[in-house]
Every structure is written in C-alpha cells, then in structure tokens.
Amino acid sequence: MNIRNTVLAAALLGTIGFSQSSMAITIDGITFANGSNFETLDLFQGRRGGGAITAVGDELIGIGIVNRILDADNNVLWQNGDDGRELTVYFQGYFAESLATDAFGTTFLDRILFSGGSLSLFSDSTPNFSASGTQAAGIASATDGSLFLSLTGSAIGGFGANTGDPITLASEALRNSGDPFTNSFNITGRGLLDVTGGSAASFFNTNTFGCVGANGAPCPDDADKSFTSSGQLGVAGAWAARGTGEVQDVALIPEPATLALLGVGLAGMAFGTRRKAKAVA
C-alpha cells in the first residue's frame, strides 16, 4: 500500500474509532464522555496538622480517591483500577471564615463557611492510595501520579467575615450534644470549582455552572465543576472526618464530523508532501 492510501486509511479508521466510542475519550488512562459526567469519591479531611476545624482561620485539607465516573445515564465509563489506574484527589487552602451554631430543640446545626481552596486530580499508574497513615503520607500517596486536572474554589455567594474573600465552600453538620464542631454527625458540604490546568483541562474548562457574584462582586471566571459531600466526624487516624463526595461536570469532546475533517486534512497534507517529494526527486 502506498503512503497516500496508508494515510487515508488511518484517517478513516481514526474517525470511525471516535464515532463508535459514543463520544468518550481516554486521557492518562481515565475515560469520560461528552456531556455530563459524575464522579463518586471517598474523602478524608480535617484541619492541617490534625483534628477538626474549630476556629476561624483553620485550614481544611483532604485527600480522596475516585471510585467511578458515570455518564448522564449512570453508565459506568471508568472505575478505580481500569487500565491499571487510580484517580486521586488532594485539596488544600480552604480557610474557615466563620463558625456558627443554630439550635433546634435538642438538635444543633453547626455551620462553617470557607474561602479560597485548590484541588488537584492525579492519574496514577502505580495505585497506592492510602489514608491510614499520617497526613503527610496520605498526601504523598494521593499526589504521586500525573496531573489530570488542577482547580481553584469558585464563589458560591457571600463574603467571608474574617478576610472578606468570597465564600467557596459551605459545610453543615448536625449533632445532638457535645462540643460544637467536634461531635457532629451527618456532615454535608457544597462548593464550586474552576479548572486551571492539567492534561484534561481543555475538555473540562466549559464554564458550565456559572459563578455566584457575592453582593454584586464580579466573578473572574465561571465554575466548571460542582460538588457535594457527606460524612462523619470522629474517624480514628490523621483525618478528622471520612465520607463520600459527588462531582458533576460537563466535558466537551470534538464531534466525529470535526474529527473526520481533521483526518481528511491530514491526509491531504500527507498527499501533498508526497507529491512535493516526487517533484524534488
């Protein structure tokens, strides 16, 4: 087969491959789909240095691992271990702006608002994630892969009472008794994230979830991911809380028609190069 036919066949096969994949793509061993994606995670979190968040200015950090990536119809696109990979999470830089408690009879609702925050996702070909040791060991196991995505906290509404920075994360927890913020159960959290880098950044920087301007303050960029979490305090070990999380995002993958045009264009370039080479000869 001559070079012209080889290139044309390769371009055609490449286009068919994308068409048959139902618009799914794999980056660094992690598969996701065009449109809505949902990631489920196991999370471990607490104050940097250990313990729960108990004071304004405390920094919330945490690690986690992605169990599954689902499409909008809840079909599993990727799960932990596929292609010999794990997808891990490390977040830091969430600083407590305020702590408050509301009483409802014998039940109390503890609320913490955070500003700042950054989160990184790593695709690791040597799975070794563990939260059973020290915070430093857990962070090391969560960050030893290749950077899949880096993100920063995006405003969800309101300014912090401590620094005046936009609120990017809100946490609520119920308790029946005990000290505030240290004896809670049924903890929930919610926030927004904006993609800033990583090998998959171009597919997820879609500005899907907007950005809540606090008191009319403009947003630097619309959010690309939303997340919710739930868990409990009182977990033994370096992390004060353990729970689960769900991340929602929207990925944009080039349509097959676009890829087909790209394939034809490449084929044309190769054919033109071949003709030029013959003319020179």
Task: Describe the SSE topology.
Blueprint (H helix, E strand, L loop, with lengths): L2 H18 L3 E4 L2 E4 L1 E13 L11 E13 L4 E4 L6 E19 L2 E18 L10 H8 L3 E9 L12 E9 L9 E13 L3 H4 L20 E9 L7 E11 L4 H25 L1
Antiparallel strand pairs: 1-2, 3-4, 3-12, 4-5, 4-6, 6-7, 7-8, 7-9, 8-10, 9-10, 10-11, 11-12
Task: Describe the structure using short key phrases.
281 residues, single chain, disordered C terminus, 20% helix, disordered N terminus, two-stranded antiparallel ribbon, 12 strands, 2 domains, alpha+beta, ten-stranded antiparallel sheet, 4 helices, globular
The main sheet comes to: 10 strands, antiparallel
Helix content: 10-25%
Taking all Cα atoms into account, the compactness measure Rg is: 23 Å
- Rough shape? globular
Average of per-residue pLDDT values: 84
Low-pLDDT parts are: 1-21, 258-264, 273-281
Overall description:
The radius of gyration is 23 Å and the shape is globular. The protein has two domains: 1-23 and 255-281; 28-252, no CATH class. Mean pLDDT is 84; it is low at 1-21, 258-264 and 273-281. The strands form two sheets. Strands 3, 4, 5, 6, 7, 8, 9, 10, 11 and 12 form a ten-stranded antiparallel sheet that branches. Strands 1-2 form a two-stranded antiparallel ribbon. The two termini are 20 Å apart. It contains four helices and twelve strands, in the order αβββββββαβββαββα. The chain has helices at residues 3-20, 135-142, 201-204, 256-280; strands spanning 24-27, 30-33, 35-47, 59-71, 76-79, 86-104, 107-124, 146-154, 167-175, 185-197, 225-233, 241-251. The protein is α+β, with helices and mostly antiparallel strands and 281 residues long.
